[in-house]
From TrEMBL:
Pfam families: DCC1-like
InterPro entries (UniProt xref): DCC1-like, DCC_oxidoreductase
Name under which the protein is recorded: Thiol-disulfide oxidoreductase DCC
Naturally occurring in which organism (per UniProt): Hemiselmis andersenii (Cryptophyte alga)
GO-annotated molecular function: protein-disulfide reductase activity
Taxonomy, superkingdom: Eukaryota
Length: 167
């Protein structure tokens, strides 16, 4: 965690060493690919369940944006720690992707027909259009359409799945 190349990120802040130590104590290692998601959003939890079922190589770890690890990672990326407006993907090289780019990269990495469709969408649909749909249509309506829940209520936690969550 030496530096992060983030889309739309500002400068990091104090407490970085404490954040790194806390993340390491929860199993985070340099090179991990981490998905930060809204842990109370039913749509977001459903999407995480989708990824868990299809990510056969266990390429991704997960952290709810509301959790200690999620907030620590957001701070380290220079993002507001209470920003729940977007899914965030931290790549193994510490590049950060947000909004549609994050979603499509994760789905693509899971492979299959849907992964190929994600690749086509990333190639054909301009990012500005994708991000507008994400930010103006999907994100502001997700609670109203899909509802909310308490974190971890939407999945059965086996030891193998538990190991993929930082909090």
């Amino acid at each position: 965690l030496t530096g992060m190349a983030a889309e739309g990120a500002g400068s990091g802040g104090g407490g970085r060493e404490a954040d790194v130590a806390a993340l390491r104590s929860k199993g985070f290692q340099n090179g991990d690919r981490v998905v930060l998601y809204d842990g109370v959003c039913n749509m977001c939890n459903g999407w995480v369940n989708y990824v868990l079922a299809r990510d056969k190589k266990a390429q991704f770890k997960f952290a709810a944006l509301q959790g200690d690890s999620g907030r620590s990672l957001l701070r380290m990326m220079g993002r507001e720690e209470d920003d729940l407006s977007t899914l965030v993907l931290l790549e193994s090289d510490q590049t950060v992707h947000i909004r549609s780019e994050a979603v499509l990269r994760v789905v693509s990495a899971c492979g299959g027909v849907v992964g190929k469709c994600a690749d086509v969408i990333r190639t054909v649909v301009p990012r500005g259009v994708r991000d507008w749909v994400y930010s103006e249509v999907v994100a502001p309506n997700r609670y109203r359409i899909f509802g909310t829940t308490t974190p971890d209520k939407c999945r059965r936690i086996t030891p193998a799945i538990r190991a993929r969550f930082l909090d």
